[in-house]
Write a structure and sequence with these properties.
Chain lengths: ~210, ~230
C-alpha cells in the first residue's frame, strides 16, 4: 500500500524515514515530537521532503529523482487532522460537500447519505461548526474527507484532543469506517490502546 | 445649506475617492496576499515600496505622477492612445488618491489575510481545492471584513488627499477641485470662512464614519472566531 523513503528537514535536523508496507491499515506510532505528523504532511503534500520517494498503491506522489511533486490538491489524499479544521464560515453540510467540486470527475465511491449514516451525523447537518462537540466535529471531519473521494486516508491523532468519554464514543465509528470504507489508511497515534483496536500493521518512529 | 459649487465639490471628492479605493482594491488584495502568504526574494523591497507614499512628501508623489503620467510623460502618452488621460482630469485626481491610500489599504488587507488560519487552507488543499479555489472559497470569505475595512480606509484617505493631487492635476473646479483643495483655495481669499467650515465639517463627518466603519468591520472579522 505504502512505499515511502524520504529525507525530512525538521528544524536544524535531517531525518530519514522509510516505510514499506502492503497492509491496508497501517499505524504510525512513536513519542510526541518524533515526526509522525511531518510524515503525514509529506504524504499529503503539505510539506516537501528534502529528497526521496512516496508511492501509494503504485501511484507516485513524490519522487525527487524524477522531479515529481504532485501538488496537495491533486494527491487524492483525505486527511483527518487532530483539530478537525472545519470551515467556520460554512455549516456542517457545507463542510461535508466542500470536496465535491474537486472530485466531480472522479468515480463516486462515497455519497452524502451513506457517509452521514455511517458517521451518525444526520442531525448535525444544519448546525454551525462552532457549536459542535469535539467528537461531533471529528466525525464531520472524517465525513468531509471521505466525500472528497480520496484514495488514501490519513489520520493524525484524531482522538488526542478528546476526553476519555468522547474517545470511547468515537472508536466504534473509526472501526466502522475502517471496515466499511475499504480505503488504505495511515493512522498516527501515540496511544498503544487505540492503535491495537484499529490497525493491523504498526510502524514505530522515534 | 450648501451652494451648488460646494455640492459639486463634495460630489467630486466622493466620486474620486470611491474610484480610487475600488480601482486599487484588487491590486491591494493581490499585494496584501503576496506579503501575507509568500516568501520570495525582494519581499522586503516590495514592502518598502508599498509604504513609500506614506512617508514621502505628497508633493514629491504628485511630481512623480506628473513626470510619468502627465501628457508629456511616457506612461501618459502610452495610455492616451487608449483614450485614458490623467492630466488635469478627475482620473488624475483618482490616481493620485489611489497611490496615497495604497499603503493603508495593503496594511489592513495583509493583516486580515494573516489572520485567516493557514491550517484551514491546508485542509482545503487536502480536499482537492486548487490555490485559486482555496483563495476564493476559504481565504476571501474569512478575510472579507478586513478587505472592506481596507477599502473604506483607502476611501477615507483619498477623501483627505491634497498635496499629490494639487501637484499632479491642480484644482480645477468641477474636475479636480476636491474638498481639500477647495478649502485651500477659499483660505486665499477673504470672506470664505463660512464655506470653509461647511466643507470641513463634511470632510470630518465622512472620514469619521469611514474610520468607525473600518474599525467595526475589522473587529467583526475577529469576533466570530473567538466565540467558543
Amino acid at each position: 500500500m505504502l512505499s515511502l523513503d524520504i529525507e525530512l528537514r525538521r528544524g536544524g535536523f535531517r531525518r530519514h524515514v522509510r516505510i514499506e508496507d502492503q497492509a491496508r491499515i497501517v499505524a504510525l506510532v512513536g513519542p510526541s515530537g518524533a515526526g509522525k505528523t511531518t510524515v503525514l504532511n509529506a504524504i499529503a503534500g503539505l510539506v516537501r521532503p528534502v529528497s526521496g520517494r512516496i508511492e501509494v498503491d503504485g501511484r507516485t506522489l513524490f519522487d525527487s529523482a524524477r522531479r515529481i511533486d504532485l501538488p496537495a490538491h491533486r494527491r487524492r489524499v483525505g486527511y483527518v487532522f487532530q483539530d478537525a479544521r472545519l470551515f467556520p464560515h460554512k455549516d456542517v453540510r457545507g463542510n461535508l460537500l466542500y470536496g465535491r467540486h474537486a472530485a466531480r470527475d472522479q468515480a463516486r465511491s462515497f455519497e452524502l447519505d451513506s457517509v452521514v449514516e455511517l458517521l451518525g451525523i444526520g442531525a448535525l447537518l444544519a448546525r454551525r461548526t462552532g457549536n459542535l462537540s469535539g467528537g461531533e466535529a471529528q466525525r464531520v471531519a472524517i465525513g468531509r474527507a471521505l466525500l472528497s473521494q480520496p484514495e488514501l486516508l490519513l489520520f493524525d491523532e484524531p482522538l488526542s484532543a478528546l476526553d476519555e468519554a468522547r474517545r470511547e464514543e468515537l472508536i466504534p465509528y473509526l472501526q466502522r469506517v475502517r471496515d466499511e470504507v475499504r480505503l488504505p489508511m495511515l493512522y498516527v497515534s501515540h496511544r498503544a490502546e487505540e492503535v491495537r483496536r484499529l490497525a493491523s500493521a504498526i510502524h514505530r518512529l522515534d | 445649506m450648501f451652494t451648488p459649487g460646494e455640492l459639486a465639490t463634495i460630489a467630486l471628492s466622493v466620486r474620486v475617492a470611491s474610484v480610487a479605493a475600488l480601482a486599487s482594491l484588487p491590486v491591494a488584495v493581490a499585494v496584501g496576499w503576496l506579503l501575507a502568504r509568500r516568501r520570495f526574494p525582494g519581499k522586503a523591497l516590495l514592502d518598502a515600496l508599498v509604504h513609500l507614499p506614506l512617508v514621502l512628501p505628497p508633493v514629491v508623489v504628485g511630481y512623480a505622477l506628473l513626470v510619468g503620467f502627465g501628457s508629456q510623460g511616457p506612461i501618459g502618452q502610452f495610455l492616451a492612445r487608449f483614450g485614458i488621460e490623467f492630466a488635469f482630469r478627475w482620473t488624475g485626481a483618482a490616481l493620485a488618491c489611489a497611490i496615497m491610500g495604497f499603503p493603508l489599504m495593503v496594511r489592513t488587507i495583509r493583516l486580515s489575510i494573516e489572520n485567516v488560519d493557514r491550517r484551514l487552507e491546508q485542509a482545503a488543499a487536502t480536499l482537492g481545492a486548487s490555490p485559486w479555489r482555496r483563495f476564493f472559497t476559504v481565504t476571501l470569505p474569512l478575510a472579507w471584513p478586513g478587505l472592506v475595512a481596507g477599502a473604506v480606509l483607502g476611501f477615507a484617505k483619498a477623501l483627505g488627499e491634497f498635496g499629490a493631487t494639487i501637484t499632479f492635476v491642480s484644482a480645477i473646479p468641477g474636475e479636480t477641485r476636491t474638498i481639500s483643495s477647495a478649502i485651500y483655495g477659499l483660505m486665499q481669499v477673504p470672506g470664505g470662512e463660512a464655506a470653509i467650515w461647511r466643507l470641513a465639517a463634511v470632510a470630518v463627518a465622512i472620514s469619521l464614519l469611514a474610520l468607525l466603519a473600518s474599525e467595526w468591520l475589522v473587529r467583526r472579522q475577529r469576533g466570530p472566531e473567538d466565540e467558543p
